[in-house]
Amino acid sequence: MKKLNINLIINREDYQKYQIYFEYLKISLIVLVFVFFSLFFILFLILKNKTDLEKKLNLQKGTLLEILKDKKVDEVKISYIGKKYQDLSSYLKDDAFSSPYYAFLNSAIQESSESAQLETFLITKSRDVDFTIAFTDFPQLMSFFKFIESETFLKNFETISLKSFSVIGATENQKENYELSFAGKFKPLK
What we know:
Blueprint: H1 12-94, H2 98-112, E1 117-123, E2 128-135, H3 138-148, H4 151-154, E3 157-168, E4 177-186
């Protein structure tokens, strides 16, 4: 379609009037683009700092997890030591401190007879004791009876009594054995 007429009524001044608005619009668009790019750049820097911080924290987290894994092994060891300490503490509460009593009884038996041997020894926390002595020689057994009736042996016991006497017959490989079982109570050590 072709225009057949021209509108001469439009004034040039009106166009210049609008041209100022277009200049303002152009300047405002330039400022807006500058502000937009400035904000974009600032947000980019902030985001980059955040990601760098996140990477640093993830690396630190990894090292701390490794340290924690190593500490768990140490924690298990400490727990094991703590359990052993509790076991030892409960054992010491119930322990009869039998070593000095055993040493006394063993040395007394060795002094009294060469063939006597302490076969069993059981002591409680209250110093109640059961022990068995074995002999391979009958004359040694008789001399031991004299020894246990002596004051040097009896002074260490509150009570002592013969619980049983056994004769174990001779076999091809060993001689005849005699066993004496005693029950009693030790006096407290000084």
